[in-house]
Amino acid sequence: MTTELFRDDSYATTAAATVVAVDGTAVMLDQTIFYPMGGGQPGDTGTLTLSDGQVLTVVDTRKGEGGIQHLLAEGSALPAVGAQVSLAIDWARRYLHMRIHTALHLMCAVVPAGVTGGQIGPGRGRLDFDVGETTLDKAAIEAGLNALVQADHPVSPRWVEERELDEKPELVRTMSVQPPRGAGRIRLLDIAGVDLQPCGGTHVARTGEIGALVVEKIENKGKRNRRVVVALAELAAS
Ligand SMILES: [Zn+2]
Fold this sequence. Notes:
The protein is of the alpha+beta class and 238 residues long. The chain is 20% helix and 39% strand.
């Protein structure tokens, strides 16, 4: 399996790695900074540079049975197994994902309803809520989100043992999403005093890094369901 460097350092933009397998256009490495699509967050794009200077473009990153798959474009040159490569992610795109991903955690704290789905894009994202009879107020959600951004709360991932959760049921009760069981260890994302939930994605280190947010729209997705679309203010539709 691939060592997932992005789990402990979401700010790593470059790294060195060794090619361990190539399957079609999918390259597997011993370790990576490329985030594979999952949890509503798109897979990273970027480059693998060979020792002779040849640059291979990674067009997507996915989870696979043999580890994380760095997908090269069709017709791309392929590296040899055992080759040393320099990794670089498209940091501008990933940082937009990190800011929006963290904003969606804040939305879980602001909207008093269960989450049924979500999607993260570069500078814009959405969560779907089962609101029941509750009416959502666009202006109130936007004000709540921006207050949490301005408070600049620290954001920290941490690992807990399932045993620890069994011993502290109150920790699970405070989570907005229940943790999956069976892996032994669970990665939690803790926005101090704001939101705590299991999450394997990439986030910014403080909520202030998200910057000003705009709730662009609340869509009706059926009798009980509402979709809240949020964007970074610098990218929002005016
Ligand atoms: Zn997350």
